[in-house]
Amino acid sequence: MAIPGGTPVPGPGVAGQPQELRRRAVGFGGILFQSITFMAPAIATAFSIPLGFSFAGGAAPLAVTIALVASLCVASSVAQMAKHMPTAGSFYTYVSTSIHPMLGFLVAWAFELALLVGGAFLALQIAIIVAPTLTAEYSVSANLWWPWAVLGAVIVFSLGYYGIKASTRVGLILGVFEIGVILALAITLIVKAGSHNTLQVFGTHFANSPGFKGFPGVFAASVFSVLAFIGFEEAAPLAEEAHEPRRHVQLAVVLSALLIGIFYLINTYASTVYFGPGRMGGFVEAGDTNPWQNLLARNAWGGFGFLIVFLALLNSAIANLNAANNSSNRNLYAMGRIRLLPGAFAALNRRFRSPYVGLFAMLVITIGVALWLGFQYDPYTAFGITATVIVDMFTPIYILLNLACIVYFLRFRRGEFNPVLHLLLPLVGIAAFVPAFLAGAGLPAFNFISRLPKPLSYAGPAAGIWMVVGIIYLIYLRSRHPERIEQTRRIFVEEEPARVG
Predict the structure, then answer these.
(1) Beta carbons within 10 angstroms of residue 469's beta carbon
(2) Is 346 within a domain?
(3) Which residues contact residue 268 at a Cβ distance below 8 angstroms, ignoring those fewer than 6 apart?
(4) What residues make up the domain containing 140?
(5) Which of 327, 389, 329, 338 is nearest to 356 (CA)?
(6) Number of domains in the chain
(7) How does pLDDT run across 291-321, given as a tens digit for each residue?
């Protein structure tokens, strides 16, 4: 076993296949936009954050502020561990090394559900963007949403197959475009709001949704604000392919959370003051589930605005699904490499070094879950259910990552221990994520937390069943193959050469 954050151990590989991901394939820009495009800034602005408006009303900017503070705390913890443990296994390696390998396995198990469901979530986003637009503009049947979900999944599968260089290069281009368009629209809305601009939206004054008034509404909305931030940490699974993994990953994680968090605050504030804080509970319905495109863009920029925002949102969904594929495949690859999953998942395409078995698995599961839930309910409801599952999986992971940071530096790096970076910020992050987790899981442990309505409330039990299966599998591995669990601590990246000058 490697010393935590120290000497790497070579992986077993698969017979006849390359053993390693392509080293030093991605520069800092690609690493940074892996996190940024996973966050899907335009999509999160237009869909994820507005999911919470029906709970927080005009106090949505406060919910986003809480999510930003919590995310920055986790980003700090991830960054501190990433510089010592650069590996495609990322989160489960951090927890395994710091706390215990069995807990690290459960993190890997939870993380993979979040990413697999995330693929369906993103394919549904593509359908939600394209199908209603074609219906409204060209009278195409609204029932034809599903071909767009399938097409999006296939396009992103192709990007992933051609390797991480092509995938991250496309992500960078798409990310710049979507951020530029939405930010320009937000600034236009703030200017047009004129005298209606107010800082009261950063308090509970406008948290007036029936049944969710005050902080209960803000914390319920924070479930979906947290959803918008998920992804800032996704530079970490690309560590083995980064030019300078110990430096670039930690910078990308913190910068993506900070920059996109500010972007979200500007956008949420803009939509709130323009539409009217007292009316935000009806914001989504006013825009036919796509208010940024159908309402704000048309009102601010006319027909051109409608088209350009449509392209930005579609671009964002594809970029997001592309980034999710990158992370999911690296996690599957890392688990296959140490035989927590079948060794076939560690197989790499000879030319592009892409983990193609994981790509195929992601494609099938993405399409299957998206179509099943979309036809069972409708695309937008299915989008909400998958979103809640993702939050239910990621929030406990974020809590554990904060805890792992504290334990790691106390156990293994006492000489580097910093009370702010390695204790205070992680504790603030834990405290900030607990309400979002309890609300998303349907556990009203405190009087300021309310249950989510059905069918969103089904997400908690579904996530719980997945974790029970994981615990059963863990018991099997512990009794038959304990060495595989221990290997979750392995670091597969060599030490970087010392800098000269």
Answers:
(1) 12
(2) yes
(3) 45, 49, 60, 61, 64
(4) 28-489
(5) 329
(6) 1
(7) 999 899 999 998 888 889 998 888 888 877 7
